[in-house]
Structures are given as structure tokens and as C-alpha cells.
Amino acid sequence: MFLVGLTGGIASGKSTVTKIFREELGCACIDADAIARQVVEPGTSANKTIRVAFGEDICFPDGTLNREKLGDIIFHDESKRYKLNSIVHPAVKKQMLWEIFLYFLKGYHFVILDIPLLFETRQLLPFLTFSIVVFCTENQQVKRLMERNQLSEADAMARIKSQLPLDEKCQMGSFTIDNTGTIEETRSYTLNIYKTLCSSKRHLSLRFGIVAVVSLLLGTFFLLSQN
Ligand SMILES: CC(C)(COP(=O)(O)OP(=O)(O)OC[C@H]1O[C@@H](n2cnc3c(N)ncnc32)[C@H](O)[C@@H]1O)[C@@H](O)C(=O)NCCC(=O)NCCS
Ligand SMILES: Nc1ncnc2c1ncn2[C@@H]1O[C@H](COP(=O)(O)OP(=O)(O)OP(=O)(O)O)[C@@H](O)[C@H]1O
Known about the structure:
Number of strands: 5
Largest sheet: 5 strands, parallel
GO molecular function: ATP binding; dephospho-CoA kinase activity
Distance between the termini: 37 Å
GO biological process, one term: coenzyme A biosynthetic process
Bound molecules: dephospho coenzyme A, adenosine-5'-triphosphate
Strand order of the largest sheet: 2-3-1-4-5
Shape: globular
Strand content: 5-15%
Protein name: Dephospho-CoA kinase domain-containing protein
Number of helices: 11
Keywords: ATP-binding, Membrane, Nucleotide-binding, Transmembrane, Transmembrane helix
GO cellular component, one term: cytoplasm
Structural class: alpha/beta
């Protein structure tokens, strides 16, 4: 199995493309945003640490995070953003590695990891065979973000500026998906990349590696047991 990172700018269309990979093409996909929500649910240690760091009133009475309030804080204050990242990201990484392992056991050819901050944190880059960057124009990001999250233009810009510039990310990706047009056009670019991923033989090297290591261990055990 090999790993494919999928990233982009905020509201550039990562979830839209992930949905095509998962629901239309049947790919194994892991969504870092969804995991980042799970790991801060009431009762988790990340939830408790966030309350200590940001104050009790960052949560609603039932313990769930007030995401709008936390977003207002961290997208306007870099040090608070780093603080939140340092609480949430280790738990996200742990859960992602577990989910990757489960897909490995199921024998998937590749897994797509939708990670918004792939190039900012760089933590999972060494494990990836390919990366895909979904892009649109900055004006489209602002417009889509304002509409989807009911944000002012200034707040939408603050969120965009909290990440690496999208054109820099495009240069770092193995593939890009142009999401400036219609969803139908995006679907067709996604399908082309899917075909390339399916024809890749990179998953075989890991499987051969594992078979070689297991054979070596069994062989050594056998030789030692003969003496
Ligand atoms: C600040 C929070 C509470 C806002 O929640 P909200 O529901 O409004 O947004 P959501 O989680 O759906 O994120 C939307 C997008 O915002 C961007 N984003 C989220 N967190 C960050 C961050 N720390 N830095 C830069 N961009 C971010 C990503 O592009 C993400 O796809 C939430 O984003 C959060 O907990 N962020 C910290 C964890 C994180 O880094 N998540 C990103 C993937 S690991
Ligand atoms: N090609 C498109 N044309 C019009 N609207 C689109 C297109 N692609 C995505 N959108 C809309 O733009 C918004 C952002 O898309 P999406 O949620 O896929 O982005 P994202 O990169 O996953 O966002 P985030 O970084 O916030 O998680 C959504 O409301 C989506 O429906």
C-alpha cells in the first residue's frame, strides 16, 4: 500500500475532491478535519487541555467546543494558533496512523489522506508517495469561504493568510487539481489522477519489503533453533 496526501488552500475544494475519490471511485480516504473534530470531543484529553489553555468559556455547557469562537481567536493570533495545533495535531497524527494501519490490513492499494496543513506541518510528508494539491483562485476561496462559513471578507482573508500561499503548495505537489471551473471539470481531473494512481506499482515495494523482513526473521529463527 502507498499513501497519497491531498491538500490545498482553505475552501479550495479538498473535501469536494475527497468525496469524489471516496463516494464515486471507492477509494480509501482519511479526513484530517474529521479526525480533528473527533479528538476534541467532550471527555478527551485534548478537550481538557484546550479548556485549560483557552479558558472554560471556549466550550458550551455540554463540553463541546465552541468552534466559531475558537476559530475567531486562532485565525487572528499566530501564537494561539500554534498553541491549539500543539494540542490537537499529535492526537490527529496518532489516529491517522491507526486508520492507515487498518486500511493496510484490509489490503488497499493506496490510501488518500486529506490533510489541509500537509505542507505547513510537513510531518507526514516522508511517508507519502504522491501528493495532490487542489487549487482555485484567491477570489474564489474568499467567496466560497464567505458563503459556506458566513464570514466577513476580512475574516475569510485572515483564514487564507494563516496558511502557506496556495501557489507555493501547487509547486510542491506531485499533481494538481484545478477547481476553478465546474464540479464536472474537477471530477474529470480527479478521474485522470485516479487512473494514474491505480496503474502505479509502488504498493508492491512495501509488500515485498514486509515479506522479505518476515522471511529473514523466520529464517534466522529456524537456523538458531537448529543449533
Ligand atoms: C479552529 C477550529 C476550531 C475551527 O473549526 P471550524 O469548524 O470552523 O473549521 P474546520 O475544522 O472545518 O476547518 C476548516 C479549515 O480551516 C483550516 N484550518 C483549520 N485549522 C487550522 C490551523 N490551525 N491553521 C491553519 N488553517 C487551519 C483548514 O483548511 C481546514 O480545512 C478548527 O479548525 C481546529 O480545531 N483547528 C485546529 C486543528 C487543525 O489544525 N485542523 C486542521 C487539520 S489537522
Ligand atoms: N468547483 C466548484 N464550484 C463552486 N463551488 C465549489 C466548487 N468546489 C467547491 N465548491 C464549494 O466551495 C466550498 C469549499 O469547498 P470544500 O469544502 O470542498 O473546500 P475545502 O478545501 O475542503 O475547505 P476547508 O479547507 O475549509 O476544509 C464548499 O461550499 C463547496 O461546495
